[in-house]
Amino acid sequence: MRRITLGIVCALAVLPSVARAGVVVSPLSTFGGGDGWLAPGEGGYAFLGSANNERGLAYGNGHLYLVSRSGGTNIRILNPSTGADLGGLDVTGISGGTFAVNAAAVGGDGAIYVGNLTTQSATTPFKVYKWSNEVSTPTVAFNGSPLSGGRVGDSLAVTGSGGSTRLVAGFNSSPALAGNNGYAIVDPTAGTSSDITFSTTPPNAGDFSRSVAFSDASHVIGAPGLALRYTSFSGTAGTLIASPAVGAAADRLVAYAVVGGTPLLATANTADSHVNIYDMTDPTAPVLAATGNNTSGTLTANGNLVGELAWGPVVGNTATLYAMSTNQGIQAFTVSVPEPGEIAFFAVISVRLLCRRKR
Q1: What are the chain's domains?
Q2: Is the Cβ–Cβ distance between 75 and 67 less than 8 Å?
Q3: Predicted model pTM
Q4: Is the confidence at residue 173, as pLDDT, over 60?
């Protein structure tokens, strides 16, 4: 009886750690210079530099989209395997904002969304542009004043497709306004938005300003550094579900995906560009599963703590992850989650070894 009980205890203790340890992150060797890193200015590329002009990155339609203000208003189309520039989206009619274009997201139907950045939404509206496809001209999907008077547009994420598409944009801590610890939910089909407010703190002012991610249609994750803000919303009311401690103070960029049935959250560090992958099976207690960094040498500082992560194609138990910390280039990783059978096999072996030592 004692051995049976011990075996059960060992199995319960080992299975979660084995599953999480099985995630593998490796450089996408075809990307950039062959090391999984498209460095700023590599090969003379004009649209990815170190002058704070590139802050938006998104994946969809089999391509990577880079938002660049180098030399004007640009939404560049990149080859997701190599990073090669394939041309740009039509930017006819784009104007207004502190920055006319800033962050990007792609809906489940392939629609491309790019928001401007406004530091004063009451006088300079927050705009979101939409491209139905890569050859279309942009239309204004939203033009309004979330958190009237606030700074909006540093972060952007999307969930859904067609009429169910929703965007989220976090509010900045400056200027100091009531409600700037929340975010706006934008309906690009109706052209409307709702300010999501929280009756308690945390969340603190600006907790969703640098990066946001949907885990599903009613849950939003922010990363103010040292912790996550895992929240839900209904109507205009936001609820903080948990603030699990994760990573370092500069781990500000986030993106969420389900790979091989396992929910994963990627974070990127705006100081040294390293990427962490967390198992979000229990979103109130994320567990670090893997880490990676393809950069080298001295990186230009990302003083604004901005940039964007984008999950690429998910094929079975493998996905591609793109990470851009502003001024530090774009990294591309292959992320692999072990098959359930592999997890079970290694768990059994680990249990046997552990229990053998305890006899």
Answers
A1: 1-22+340-359 (no CATH), 89-243 (2.130.10.10)
A2: yes
A3: 0.90
A4: yes
